[in-house]
Amino acid sequence: MYELAYSRPESLTEALALLAEDEGAQALSGGQTLMPVLRARLAMPSRLVDLQRLPELAGIRLVEGGIEIGAATTHAEVAASAHVRAVLPALADLAGGIGDPAIRHRGTIGGSIANNDPAACYPSALLALGATVTTSRRTLAAEEFFTGMFSTALEPGEIVTAVRFPACQRAAYIKFRNPASRFALVGAFVAQLPSGYRIAITGGGHGVFRWREAEQHLDGGGAMAAITEDMLDLGHFTGDLHGSAEYRHHIAAVIVRRALSTLA
Ligand SMILES: Cc1cc2nc3c(=O)[nH]c(=O)nc-3n(C[C@H](O)[C@H](O)[C@H](O)COP(=O)(O)OP(=O)(O)OC[C@H]3O[C@@H](n4cnc5c(N)ncnc54)[C@H](O)[C@@H]3O)c2cc1C
Fold first, then answer.
1. Ligand 1 centre distance from Cα of residue 185 (Å)
2. CATH classification of 55-166, choosing from 3.40.50.150, 3.30.465.10, 3.90.1150.10, 3.30.200.20?
3. Which CATH superfamily is domain 171-263 in?
4. Mean pLDDT of successive 10-residue segments in the chain (264 residues)?
5. Which helix or strand (DSSP H or E) is residue 35 part of?
6. Ligand 1 center to residue 74 CA distance, Å?
7. pTM summary value
């Protein structure tokens, strides 16, 4: 590790000031991605601004029509939350399946979505449920927030403060996990909202996306069994040592059908 400064601000205002006054400074949440990145010298910030103690980023709250989760909430807290279990059980299940206990007790929802790893689980839930992301500057729909692989609409010095989800009992997440990392080789979050079906796929390689053809098929009264990879663009998928693009493409359709069958 090289020398760098570390700050643990007590308020969001203080954190924003620290990030604004040093353009080499970087936000730190659970460190489950950032610390390995620093160890590999893939990033060399001059200062880490620790967001874990900010009261503005803490807590899980029931709000009208759904639930709001503070950005510093760990995956373990989401998984164990009675509020999340009551209004959005699929999200609690998703959080409980992230990584291993050590990752779940440090990693946060804010860090996960800010990082937007193309194999991460949360982005698919945000996209499928039509969640909104609140930052220190604005509120963004999930669709605007995620802009591609490891890329988001966040601007320098902007901090995710919370994520708001609608309540939904008819939702499910299925992950075909990479047995080594436990990230999604492919993952599918499906939801039946008042506006219709929403299906988001993670792990394809280019970043999370909605499978709109399958959504339209279901909204038009089409049979679940007729959803196959033939209606899914292979261009969403890439291959690596863990699986080819064709393999991921096929698995995506299988787990979407499986997730949908749990809603029935
Ligand atoms: C072995 C392993 C297995 C994993 N398995 C899974 C898995 O199965 N599914 C899954 O989804 N994830 C998985 N993860 C990722 C993990 O769950 C963390 O969510 C993720 O690493 C980032 O969250 P963090 O809180 O640790 O963020 P950090 O590592 O602290 O930060 C990540 C990035 O986000 C930025 N950032 C952090 N918080 C904020 C904020 N509030 N506002 C703006 N920017 C911010 C940081 O500057 C940094 O660029 C795994 C990680 C590891 C190491």
1. 17
2. 3.30.465.10
3. CO dehydrogenase flavoprotein, C-terminal domain (3.30.390.50)
4. 89 98 97 94 95 97 97 98 98 97 98 97 98 98 97 98 97 94 94 97 96 97 95 96 96 98 90
5. helix 34-39
6. 10
7. 0.97
